[in-house]
UniProtKB/TrEMBL annotation:
Subcellular localization: Membrane; Secreted
Superkingdom classification of source: Eukaryota
Entry keywords, A to Z: Developmental protein, Differentiation, Disulfide bond, Glycoprotein, Immunoglobulin domain, Membrane, Neurogenesis, Secreted, Signal
GO CC annotations, alphabetized: extracellular region; plasma membrane
Name of protein: Semaphorin-3B
Higher taxonomy: Eukaryota, Metazoa, Chordata, Craniata, Vertebrata
Sema domain boundaries: 50-556
Region (Disordered): 761-812
Function text: Inhibits axonal extension by providing local signals to specify territories inaccessible for growing axons.
Length: 812
């Protein structure tokens, strides 16, 4: 028991050390110059989410469903099938079909391992038999009304298969037809660590992938169907230079299908930044669906391939830009006009010095404009990249052969000079810049990166909002802060609190600017593993999330969690939710109910909830404290952005006074801690939460102070050393509190105290004498009070509560 508790304390200390180290490293980022400017101007949105729900809290609320599979992992491919009501999943050695209603129920499985001889071959080549030489299903597409198309690494032997899923939901067919298994080269990667980006259009597969065992020959490849397969120029760094493919999408350009284009999103080593070392740029590449390759040169190669840089940056204080170049994910939000979806992207930085992540939004107009701009051209004495000034041949490379823009029937009919120009100028000079010139959402100095994004357009009372669901996970670059940690502890695992889902909206503020609101942070996996895939169903209002260890399902909203009062619902500013007169519930704009109240833009309960909030009864409870021992007055606001103040009224005749924290009275995120109760502490305490200019009283606690009888807790107990050693005693007491109390939740509280003491928020007064024996004896009483408060609170809320901002302990 004792050793276990000590371990918990150690890991708490380790976490504190780490947070201190990462705070330090983000503090110096401005001073180190490696092409990274000061992030001083990056004052992003409030740093904490309004609501933070741990896995446990989500579970208590029945807010998360989970699918896991023994002896499998790496649920990297997710495919939504709204009509059949299924979520198809590609994992290690398995294909799965889960129910969209509840992924934990009615699953169907296909065991799809790599054949033994391939595994042996892979093992002889020096790969790990269990990690590498197995089949990771990486590619999953709808093929036709009865079949899916799936590809896996097949122990470094890419393989694809047609998967029969039946006509209708009732068919319950889910199997691989063994006669329909084929070579997956150019469709699936060989290496499980690599990814492919692909899109299946008609009966053709367009994929960006490495096509060789060594992972050096990267290509954008068209296969399947009846036309000859076609690819990018081989080993030409101007075309592709060590790319990492992220996404592929088909977007029509006009009403004429001949103009349809396919866009690839990737990041690669920038040829144009040669001379600045190895620099990564994010790219968007385009090609025409009706590209048939050239006739004499570029035979079976793309003749319409163009690419350009995707810029996502913020201006620094010195006028330079800080770039986010590590493109991680792309989501196309369809609008009414199929030709103009909105392109939502997530980026992290490629710098190991300055860490941050951003969401950037692009329009198809800006993307098309870049491809119609000047070509990049290498010229001059220094071979610099400049805009091409000469005459561009006709038809302009990048244009699809169609009646809309010319008279060419096929790319095979393009003149030789067009083909030659296309071959040498795949890169555009102008980059694509984001809408508004800067990210729509930004986070810096956090221990995770954005890895995934899915967006839902929601109709609210005051217009529509694009709700962004952002998956987080491991940094592209490993954190150096770990090594710089002053706490050298070995054998303890590092913090894994990185995989979460953030729910964010951008609210217009004035006519030109907007402000971002981080509504929720959800820990959807118990082990907080990095999120590597996300699919959204607007129809079912569900989000499906994949990671290394499992698949999770959460609702897009949890309105009732915001509270039981109109003001709480209104302050949440969640476009999914509104006050219906009785509760905070899902807002549907077409249901004509007069008393639906919602104000996402302003979130002002004074105008919206007038009359309503007065009716809310303030919760009252009673607490007994023993003179000389400590008491904890717990009050948890639902919102982490609320500012809590306490008032104290000693006697009904006395005025209500604001509690001013000092060495004896500590205000923590979870409540008020009276370290050593005095007789004059008795009376009525009220806890008030202020948010967005609106104040509400959450709780009233009547504290009755009982005179102490135990000699051990008497304030006259022998005093010991001063200064330094008193400090040690306080630490020791914190240990003892942990030993005493079985509920690990309270560790958060203690961390909070330790944390604030370490950081000088409340330096302990040497005059406070707290002998260890005092803590030992009075501990039980103290925790009994705490438990009473806790029990009371559990009765009050069955629907969970916001988490503390304190560092997580290893036990949670
Ligand atoms: C779908 O494709 C598979 C594989 O080519 C084929 O066997 C099947 O008949 C097709 N189904 C339909 C409805 O066309």
């Amino acid at each position: 028991m004792m050793t276990m508790t000590m371990k918990v304390v150690c890991s708490v200390l380790l976490l504190l050390g780490l947070s201190a180290a990462s705070a330090m490293s983000s503090g110096v980022s401005g001073a180190v110059s490696s092409g990274v400017s000061s992030p001083a101007s990056m004052t992003s949105s409030p740093s904490s989410p309004r609501m933070k729900l741990t896995y446990k809290e989500l579970q208590q609320f029945n807010g998360v469903k989970r699918f896991e599979l023994e002896r499998s992992c790496c649920f990297g491919a997710l495919l939504l099938d709204e009509e059949r009501g299924r979520l198809f999943v590609g994992a290690r050695n398995f294909l799965l079909s889960l129910s969209l209603e509840n992924i934990a129920k009615h699953e169907q499985k296909i065991y799809w391992p790599a054949p033994v001889d391939w595994r042996e071959e892979c093992n002889w080549a020096g790969k790990d038999i269990n990690m590498d030489c197995v089949n990771y299903v990486k590619v999953l597409h709808h093929f036709n009304r009865t079949h899916l198309y799936a590809c896996g690494t097949g122990a470094f032997h890419p393989t694809c298969a047609y998967v029969q899923v039946g006509h209708k939901l009732e068919d319950h067919v889910f199997r691989i037809d063994p006669s329909l298994v084929e070579d997956g080269k150019g469709k699936s990667p060989y290496d499980p660590r690599h990814n492919a980006a692909s899109v299946l259009i008609g009966d053709e597969l367009y994929s960006g992938v490495a096509t060789d065992l060594m992972g050096r020959d990267f290509t954008i490849f068209r296969s399947l169907g009846h036309r000859p397969s076609i690819r990018t120029e081989k080993h030409d760094s101007r075309w592709l230079n060590e790319p990492k493919f992220i996404g592929a999408f088909a977007v029509p350009e006009s009403e004429n299908p001949d103009d349809d284009k396919v866009f690839f999103f990737f990041r690669e080593t920038a040829v144009e930044a040669h001379g600045f070392g190895k620099v990564t740029y994010a790219r968007i590449g385009q090609l025409c669906r009706n590209d048939m390759g050239g006739q004499r040169s570029l035979v079976n190669k793309w003749t319409t391939f163009l690419k350009t840089r995707l810029v996502c940056s913020v201006p620094g204080s010195d006028g330079s830009e800080t770039h986010f170049d590590e493109l991680r994910d792309v989501f196309l939000l369809q609008t009414r006009d199929r030709k103009n979806p909105l392109v939502y992207t997530v980026f992290s930085t490629s710098s190991s010095v300055f860490r941050g992540s951003a969401v950037c939004l692009y329009t198809m107009n800006d993307i098309r404009r870049a491809f119609l701009g000047p070509f990049a051209h290498k010229e001059g004495p220094n071979y610099q990249w400049v805009p091409f000034q000469g005459k561009v041949p006709y038809p302009r490379p990048g244009m699809c052969p169609s009646k809309t823009f010319g008279s060419f029937e096929s790319t095979k009919g393009f003149p030789d000079n067009v083909i030659q120009f296309a071959r040498h100028h795949p890169l555009m000079f102008n980059p694509v810049t984001p809408l508004g010139g800067r990210p729509v959402f930004l986070r810096t100095g956090v221990p995770y990166s954005f890895t995934q994004i899915a967006v839902d357009r929601v109709n609210a009372a005051d217009g529509h909002y694009d709700v962004m669901f952002i998956g987080t996970g491991q940094q592209a670059y490993d954190c150096s802060a770990v090594h710089a940690s002053p706490v050298a502890v070995t054998g303890l695992s590092l913090p894994t609190d990185i995989g979460a889902v953030l729910k964010v909206i951008s609210v217009p503020k004035g006519s030109w600017s907007s402000t971002e609101l981080l509504l929720e942070e959800l820990q959807v996996f118990k082990d907080s593993s990095s999120i590597n895939n996300m699919q959204i169903s607007s129809k079912r209002q569900q989000l499906y999330v994949g990671s290394e260890t499992g698949v999770a399902q959460v609702s897009l909203h949890r309105c009732s969690m915001y509270g039981k009062a109109c003001a709480e619902c209104c302050l949440a500013r969640d476009p999914y939710c509104a006050w219906d007169g009785h509760a905070c519930t899902r807002y549907l704009p077409n249901t004509k109910r007069r008393f639906r109240r919602q104000d996402v833009r302003n979130g002002d309960p004074n105008t919206l909830c007038s009359g309503d909030y007065h009716k809310q009864r303030v919760l009252e409870r009673r607490l007994y404290g023993v003179e000389g021992s400590s008491s904890f007055l717990e009050c948890l606001p639902k919102s982490l952005q609320a500012q809590v103040t306490w008032t104290h009224q000693r006697h009904p005749n006395n005025p209500r006074e604001e509690v001013r924290p000092d060495d004896r009275v500590l205000q923590t995120d979870r409540g008020l801690l009276l370290r050593r109760v005095l007789r004059r502490d008795g009376g009525v305490y009220q806890c008030h939460a202020m948010e967005h200019g609106f104040t509400q009283t959450l709780l009233g606690i009547t504290l009755e102070v009982l005179p102490s009888t135990s000699p051990a807790s008497s304030p006259h107990s022998p005093s010991h050393a001063q200064g330094q050693s008193t400090n040690q005693k306080l630490w020791y007491r914190d240990f003892m509190q942990l030993v005493d109390h079985p509920n690990l939740n309270t560790i958060d509280q203690i961390c909070e105290q330790v944390w604030s003491r370490k950081h000088g928020k409340a330096v302990p007064d040497p005059s406070i004498e707290t002998p260890a024996s005092d803590a030992l004896h009075s501990g039980h009483k103290k925790w009994k009070h705490l438990k009473e408060v806790r029990k009371g609170r559990n009765r009050r809320t069955h629907d969970g509560r916001p988490a503390s901002r304190a560092p997580r302990s290893a036990g949670e």
